[in-house]
User: What shape does this take?
Amino acid sequence: MKKFSFLLIFSLLLFTACKKDHVDATNTKTLQSSINDMTASLSTIKQIKFNEALYILKTFGVEADGDVAELKALGQLINGKKVPEIMTLADQVAQKNGIEWASTSPPSLGEMNIFGDEKAKETDANDVKANSLSIITRPTGDDGAGAPTALQIIPRLVDNAGNPVSFTGAGLEATLEVFSNGVKLSTAKNLMQDNNFKGFNLKFSSIPAAKVVDNKIDITVSIKTTAKTFKMTKIGLDVNPDLLKVPVAPKVDSTAVNQDPAVIDPNNPTATPTATDPNATSATTPAAPKQPVADPKTTVTGFLNNVSSQNLKAAYNSASNPSWGSYESFSNPTSGFGSIKNVSVKNISTNASNASSASVNATYDVTDKSGKTTSLKVTFGLKSVNGEWKISSYKINP
Assistant: This one.
């Protein structure tokens, strides 16, 4: 009897020891097994939030096409991580993508299963009953000259009569694909939790100018419910050609002086230039410093667009402002520009400009991650750095 008890206790300890407390992404089988082990150790509510976190990471935290590729990429992202680390990572991804989700909030995304179980459950909030999808598009923003800076794209699930259906607590995967002349330009994803979904804000500055034909784009939006994927396309939407993304010209060292070897003998550089260049002189005149050719308000417009889309690295790189400190301080999600969810520009104008400095006034609304909106009037100071305008000061006016 004692021997049996000892064997029973030993087997239970062995079983417990075999359970994983971290992700093993050696293959799909070990990934699922380790996640199941980790889930089993959690309370019911935490199990749901853990599954939501995995869904957030699989949908928005990796770049891959198709469920199999997404699952493999997810495994690489979270391999070796424990539950708290995965929850923290999901919080960061949700915040970066403007998704209203947090690991500490109540369950909000319906039934989530990253391994593809799409069988509808009795309480499945993602099993939304709808007939079709409609899309509303409208220009937004102002480039300072009255032209829009973006397109707001709002999908709605509708019934047979074309009326929006009512649902809450879902976590429907919403995908936006942008095309021009049949060529895909970009893809974006978001979560549709109810039919008041704000949709997608497509910045013209994110669209490559070289791939846009006749200043028009086509869009396709798809919404994935448990039972069906709804899809709709709109063709021939106008874009603002002046704001499309243009590759940055390579920087040229303005201090470099190119010399013609036919004019100066490399073996005797102090010799008088040969007659092949009648205008040559014995003294070399250094090149003048490169002067900026762009309007300084273009830099401010790009900065605000990047802050609004949370491309904070690009925003930080467009500035040379000591008061903003390091990038970590600049992008801080609590006290820095990382706390901003959206920027709606009302007006931008160049106040003053010369060869080395400029001043730009901007009026815009800032919405933070908590949903609070503040109207600002800001004066940006800029300076010329190697032929580019860089933001050097930032003053909020009363």
